Amino acid sequence: MTVPTGRRERKKAATRQKIADTALRLFLERGYDEVGIRDVAAEADVAVTTLFSHFASKEALVFEQDDNFEQRLTQAVTGRAPHEPLIPALRHEIHALVRHCTADSAAPIWRMIDASPALREYEESMRLRHAESLATALADAPDLPQTATACRTIARFVIDAYALAREAADPQAALDEIFRMIEAAWEVTCPTPGP
Question: Using CB atoms within 10 A as the burial measure, which of 35, 89, 117, 165 is most buried?
């Protein structure tokens, strides 16, 4: 995520973060289903309309880093140096994201998500959207001459790697194993240069 440069942008970012932090604190203290949007707005000292100008839904308050996650993944594709291998770049980004979400401080949040059907459903739709964005970035990259199907498949594998590693007893070992399979799948789709 880019750092806001102007005063107005910084103020908006600070308000957004205050709302997200307040919501998460209330959800963890009282339970996700026990806290309403009005409760969050009142506690954050903002109008409900202000809350909705920053977050489209109650679920989005829990996944406030959603846009950042998506940008980081697509940037791993579009920000590569010419001829830099794709899969290691994606693996590096997924590793950083998994490390963040498996920190001890994240455990209560994931327990809350796992306990809520609404949050699990939102997370699943978010993962599908991330996979589509990543697939589009892969398909648009001029140095990656794969088919749309190959791009969508690899994108899904990468997004699923994040979810599987996050849930694994040893996330690093899980990522190593999963990315070996992703690398092999990607190599199968690469056209072989002629003699």
Answer: 165
Answer whether 77's CB lies under 8 Å from 134's CB: yes
Token representation of residue 189: 């789709």
Q: Could you read off the pLDDT of 138-180 as tens digits, one per residue? A: 888 877 777 888 889 999 999 999 889 888 889 889 999 999 9
Q: Alpha-carbon distance 13 to 3, whole Å?
A: 9
Contact 97, 17 (CB under 8 A): no
- For 145-187, the three-class secondary structure string (H helix, E strand, C coil) is CCCHHHHHHHHHHHHHHHHHHHHCCCHHHHHHHHHHHHHHHHH
A 10 A CB-CB count for 110 gives: 15
* Ramachandran category for residue 146: left, alpha or beta (phi over 0 → left; psi -120 to 50 → alpha): beta
- d(CA 26, CA 39) in angstroms, rounded, equals 8
- Residue 59, both tokens: 């679920």
